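Following the same procedure, sequence and fold were stored together, as reproduced here:

>
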Amino acid sequence: MPRPPAPPVKPVTRGPSHALIGGVVVLVVALIAVLVWAATRDAGELGASGSGAALPDGGGVSVGAGLEADVPQIRIYEDFQCPWCGVLERSVGEALADKIEAGEVNVTFQIMSFLDGSLRNDSSTRAANAALCADDAGAFVAFHGAVFANQPQQEGTGWTDEQLVGFGRDAGISGEALGTFEQCVADQPHADYVADMQTRANQDGVTGTPTMFVNGEKITDEEMNRLMQDPSALDGVLAAHP
């Protein structure tokens, strides 16, 4: 399946190396056993309940209390090469992880890959595929956090396959599962789904990362900027979108 073209970027805030619409990406750690593990490839509509693992639908990866749970339903649009996504993860990632562990929210990650076009590499696509490989191993959220924690200082440098495998090891993948993960990183079996996630983001009208929806409502630019700077703003942002 050919990869979709990169969507235009409409910057709200400017960073040191590229401009992307202000917003938030949230990164989380592994769920404790008492929660429902809902690491599904979601085929539902934006902001609606649903479930499923139909890869062509490009519905992202859902983790937390479940897509049908009566909790805030959050959808995050992100690109692993986006430095602002890394900034927001460092700001609110831990706070949201606590809420996920407590069963208070559900988060669907819509992993985009449009920065490959502007940065002239394929690291967004390969990292997204590797994240799905980690999902296969039950380590999506930990791997997701490891990738953002290891963003290169120079935007566009990207990651080698060896580095991505190392992030999987950091995420707790070991033994036979690590060998399977390494092969998955090399073979990119989820490449079609990665392209579908970008297509889904385009269809949803998302033109930059990070972008965040709560219960189907896009958080405002002001809310996004507050989340970038103050992790304690998370409760207020969630409450503003019941």
Notes: The beta strands are 13-14, 19-20, 40-41, 61-64, 73-79, 106-112, 211-214, 217-218. DSSP finds nine helices and eight strands in the chain. The domain at 13-239 is CATH 3.40.30.10 (Glutaredoxin).
